[in-house]
Amino acid sequence: MTSIPYTADLKGLDDLSARELYDLLRMRVDVFVVEQNCPYPELDGKDIDALHLRLLDGGELLASARLLKPSTAEDPSKIGRVVVSPAHRGKRLGETLMSEAIIFCERLYPANPIALSAQAHLRRFYESFGFVGTSLEYLEDGIPHIDMVRQPATQSA
Questions:
Q1: Which long-range contacts does 45-48 make (Cβ < 8 Å, 24+ apart)?
Q2: Of 66, 60, 65, 133, the residue nearest 94 (C-alpha)
Q3: Number of Cβ atoms within 10 Å of the Cβ of 126
Q4: Which of helix, strand or coil describes residue 114?
Q5: Are the C-beta atoms of 88 and 4 separated by less than 8 Å?
Q6: How far apart are CA 50 and CA 61, in angstroms?
Q7: 106-147, pLDDT tens digit by residue?
Q8: Which of 5, 42, 94, 150 reaches 20 to 30 Å from 63, CA-CA?
């Protein structure tokens, strides 16, 4: 996928150092709030119980995603806050990040589907990973989105 050397790590909020948390939140705010000109509550309370997937090159944060565990045994796990550093775009890190996120979700919650709320213009990107649209387009913070789900690897589509 990517020729950039990277390591993937998955940490809970309490396992991130203050600097790691700062880097993660700064990247998300820089992209989702500033670049996309979308004022919304980035600090939504979900980070506390989430697992934070990071792609790193040494100590440099390349990309990240937030993984949420299923609420019940039947509910999906969720992937959100999928973001690639602006300094590292065009290197196929989004594909790498999503592959790693799916691997971790399937390892942690193998019987559960995986859900996400995709920006509508990225629908085909997520479909390439087996996600299927489950809603009509809707506006979230002024940006068109669509709900998508990927069935568990152990279950046929």
A1: 46/80, 47/13, 48/13
A2: 65
A3: 20
A4: strand
A5: yes
A6: 18
A7: 999 999 999 999 999 999 999 999 999 999 999 998 899 999
A8: 150
